[in-house]
Amino acid sequence: MASQAFLARGGKTFCNMALCAIGDAVGADMRPLKRQGEAMMAADMRQALTNPHSGFKQVSPTEATLLANQGFFAFVAGPGVRGEPDHVASVRPDSGEPVIGLSGPILANISKQSDIRRTSMAFQSSVMGEVRFYTNAK
């Protein structure tokens, strides 16, 4: 699923770079989440997304799935816990096939384990209230 360039190594993860590469590949305007052409860190992305002029708008988890099912780009951003970095991931279409996790949109999860999983398995339950979904504002 993940390009070798985005697989975790040396204790580092590259969800931020993977998100921008996926967004770029599907024609989403990822410039607001980049600095000097490079993906921001996930924490910086989360901060940038709080700006109403970021070029992205917040959507509900249901809307994120519907957008992905229609071929539009949607993604999730949320905090890490206990010293772990923040995390971002693209939302995948929901084909109805079984996926790891109990609830939330299906994600292309690029992290310590890179796989397809539901949101409930990509973020700790203690931070689910801070997890947000986005799509391009245009």
Give a topology summary.
Blueprint: H1 15-25, E1 34-35, E2 38-39, H2 42-48, E3 56-59, H3 61-69, E4 74-78, E5 87-91, E6 106-109, E7 115-118, H4 119-122, E8 132-136
Task: Average the pLDDT over all residues and give the rounded result.
Answer: 92
Q: What radius of gyration results from the CA coordinates?
A: 14 Å
Could you spell the SSE succession in H and E letters?
A: HEEHEHEEEEHE
Instruction: Give the distance, in angstroms, between the N- and C-terminal Cα atoms.
Output: 28 Å
Number of discrete helical segments: 4
- Rough shape? globular
Task: Characterize the quaternary organization of these chains.
Answer: single chain
Helix content: 10-25%
Helices and strands: which structural class?
alpha+beta
Number of strands: 8
Please outline the major beta sheet.
6 strands, antiparallel
Query: Order of strands across the widest beta sheet?
Result: 3-8-4-5-6-7
DSSP strand content: 15-25%
Give the uncertain stretches in residue-range form. none
Short description:
By secondary structure, this protein is an alpha+beta fold.
Structural description of this entry:
The protein has 138 residues and is of the alpha+beta class. Helices cover 22% and strands 22% of the residues. It has 4 helices and 8 strands. The chain has helices spanning 15-25, 42-48, 61-69, 119-122; strands at residues 34-35, 38-39, 56-59, 74-78, 87-91, 106-109, 115-118, 132-136. The strands form 2 sheets. It has a 6-stranded antiparallel β-sheet, with helices on both faces. Strands 1-2 form a two-stranded antiparallel ribbon. The model has no long low-confidence stretch (mean pLDDT 92).
